């Protein structure tokens, strides 16, 4: 073990996963103290560059930012750091445009780098801007939340426009992702629940084996066992990459599992409910649809319920009528596609776009809303 300028002792070896496909080449590193090795990793992965623009969250400490800058200067790289906006941030096209202006002022070119140091929203903005700047500039992502550690290498949160939510996105391909578990092991429970849901989703994207193994890992994950978290993060990268590079277009929509319902719930409930809670409800609803429509095993439906409950993701209380929810399902789906389809699992590892008969959908909506009305919800 050794202590670096970051002041964190590393007692878990840094794990590596190389993600490669026609559109993705990402070097993914995870472990306690991964950030301590940024100098060596940048030198070996990202090649020679002169400048780097660092976009960072307001909650990144001055000492941590200074340490990253010092490591870059040791490599002969001149860093320029910019703190993104305070408060809750939703990534937007307008914010991306501001980043482009910052890149121009910093004189970043195709041989330089853009570094994102923060949560999933910040990593999404950096991935988007890096892919477009000079036709493609290498990006280094340092995710500081568990959900960002799950998703940043293979997907981004779509950007909002002035009149539409989460409509602008692309397939990210950062050169390097450094997931330092020091940011996770001591984090408050509420701050990691989005990551728990992201890990669960990745497990069901993967295979029967990854799904059942995730259930066995829940208790160690909740205990913030670094090895268990690292194992699941590595497994998640494989599952998510397989979806991204699937030859079947329908299979590439597996990441939409739960999203159709979640978007409709957001329309009905407003912006006060956390995205991960909406997504969890979407998965619960769509799993039951899948049981009838694709014969998704009822044991897996109940296993998903149990996993979410163990992870502390409670069911929501819902008090709106069937017509409102059906309208929200139809309209939010139509904003993204002319086809009204759900990404439904047949088995863990097999999720496909599926049409649902109107009478079946209406019956499930009625049952869902009844089970979530006040007085019916657990917890």
UniProtKB/TrEMBL annotation:
User: Cross-referenced Gene3D superfamilies, in alphabetical order?
Assistant: 3.40.50.1970, Dehydroquinate synthase-like - alpha domain (1.20.1090.10)
Q: What InterPro entries would the database entry show?
A: Dehydroquinate_synthase (IPR050071), DHQS/DOIS_N (IPR030960)
The molecular function terms of the Gene Ontology recorded here are: 3-dehydroquinate synthase activity; metal ion binding
Task: Cite a single Pfam family from the UniProt record.
Answer: DHQ_synthase
Q: Which residues form the 3-dehydroquinate synthase N-terminal domain?
A: 82-192
| NAD as UniProt keyword | yes
Keyword terms? Metal-binding, NAD
Report whether Metal-binding shows up as a keyword of the record: yes
> Domain of life here?
Bacteria
Q: What is this protein called?
A: 3-dehydroquinate synthase
Say which species the protein is native to: Coriobacterium glomerans (strain ATCC 49209 / DSM 20642 / JCM 10262 / PW2)
The uppermost taxa in this organism's lineage are: Bacteria, Bacillati, Actinomycetota, Coriobacteriia, Coriobacteriales
């Amino acid at each position: 073990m050794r202590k670096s300028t970051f002041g964190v002792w590393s007692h878990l070896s840094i794990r590596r996963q190389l993600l490669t496909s026609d559109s993705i080449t990402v070097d993914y590193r995870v472990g306690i103290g991964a950030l301590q090795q940024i100098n060596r990793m940048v030198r070996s992965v990202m090649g020679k560059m002169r400048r780097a623009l660092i976009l960072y969250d307001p909650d990144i400490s001055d000492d941590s930012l200074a340490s990253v800058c010092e490591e870059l200067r040791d490599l002969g790289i001149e860093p320029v750091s910019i703190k993104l906006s305070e408060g809750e941030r939703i990534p937007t096209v307008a914010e991306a445009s501001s980043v482009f202006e910052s890149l121009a002022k910093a004189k970043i070119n195709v041989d330089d780098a853009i570094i994102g140091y923060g949560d999933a929203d910040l990593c999404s903005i950096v991935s988007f801007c890096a892919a477009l700047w000079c036709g493609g500039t290498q990006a280094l992502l340092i995710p500081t939340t568990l959900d960002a550690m799950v998703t940043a290498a293979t997907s981004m949160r779509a950007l909002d426009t002035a009149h539409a939510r989460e409509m602008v996105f692309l397939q990210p391909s950062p050169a390097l992702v450094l997931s330092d578990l020091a940011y996770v092991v001591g984090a408050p429970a509420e701050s990691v629940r989005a990551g728990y849901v992201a890990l669960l989703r990745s497990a069901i994207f993967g295979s029967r084996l990854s799904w059942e193994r995730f259930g066995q890992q829940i208790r160690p994950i909740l205990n913030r066992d670094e090895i268990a978290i690292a194992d699941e993060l590595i497994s998640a990268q494989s599952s998510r990459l397989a979806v991204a590079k699937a030859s079947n277009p329908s299979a590439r929509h597996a990441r939409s599992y739960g999203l159709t319902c979640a978007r409709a719930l957001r329309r009905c409930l407003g912006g006060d409910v956390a995205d991960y809670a909406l997504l969890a409800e979407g998965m619960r609803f769509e799993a039951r649809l899948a049981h009838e429509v694709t014969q998704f095993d009822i044991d897996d439906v109940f296993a998903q319920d149990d996993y979410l409950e163990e992870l502390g993701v409670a069911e929501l209380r819902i008090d709106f009528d069937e017509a409102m929810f059906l309208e929200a399902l139809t309209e939010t789906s139509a904003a993204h596609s002319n086809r009204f389809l759900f990404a439904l699992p047949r088995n863990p590892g097999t999720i496909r776009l599926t049409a649902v008969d109107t009478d079946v959908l209406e019956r499930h909506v009625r049952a869902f809303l009844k089970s979530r009305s006040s007085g019916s919800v657990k917890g």
